[in-house]
Design a protein that fits this description.
Layout (H helix, E strand, L loop, with lengths): L15 H9 L13 H4 L18 E11 L1 H4 L13 E8 L6 E4 L10 E10 L6 E8 L7 E9 L6 E8 L5 E13 L1
Antiparallel strand pairs: 1-4, 1-8, 2-3, 2-5, 5-6, 7-8
Length: 189
């Protein structure tokens, strides 16, 4: 409970696990130190510890609106997604956290557009917002093959500020794209 702890991560490849780790450590200004919430540091009055599978009441609801995306035209070759037509983008938005909060939702597919406009709103009831990460992934729909990856980011829910935001996207390796962003709105209701 006292002193400094250090954890070494041994990540063997790129993917969702690494994206979640990057998201968690974006908290506290991205300095690499994230303090545990109080309920993880102290035992309860009868020496009980936090159980992530326990049924808890909803503390807050995060409302996320995905308006539009831009920047892929500058980041990728014009034949990267589809050889003969503009890409068909969709966005997956969800929560990674305790089992009761974990969910993913998907926007509609916007066909043949480098600057997709979704204008869709999703609500996420959160029982433990202190441990929740907002996951955002953009993919390009491909009818005949696996959908193409177009960007991702993970953001700690406790660090989100309400209002309109230009959310930068990252590559599979976690490198920030210079131009690719999503216009989003966050609200706590």
């Amino acid at each position: 409970m006292h002193g400094a702890q250090m954890v070494a991560f041994n990540m063997q490849g790129y993917g969702r696990s690494l994206w979640l780790m990057h998201g968690m450590f974006r908290a506290n200004g991205g300095c690499g130190y994230v303090k545990k919430p109080e309920f993880l540091l102290k035992a309860g009055p009868h020496n009980e510890v936090f159980d992530p599978k326990a049924k808890l009441p909803v503390k807050t609801t995060l409302r996320v609106t995905v308006y539009m995306g831009d920047g892929w035209y500058y980041e990728f070759r014009h034949t990267h997604f589809d050889k003969y037509s503009p890409p068909d983008f969709y966005t997956r938005v969800g929560i990674a956290g305790v089992p009761a909060d974990t969910i993913m939702k998907k926007t509609k597919i916007i066909e043949d557009n480098w600057i997709p406009t979704w204008d869709e709103t999703f609500e996420f009831p959160l029982t433990v917002p202190e441990l929740a990460l907002l996951r955002i992934e953009v993919h390009e729909y491909d009818m005949s093959e696996k959908d193409d990856f177009a960007g991702q980011t993970c953001l700690p829910v406790v660090e989100l500020r309400k209002g309109f935001r230009a959310v930068p996207l990252h590559s599979r390796k976690g490198e920030k794209y210079p131009s690719t962003k999503l216009l989003m709105r966050f609200e706590f209701v």
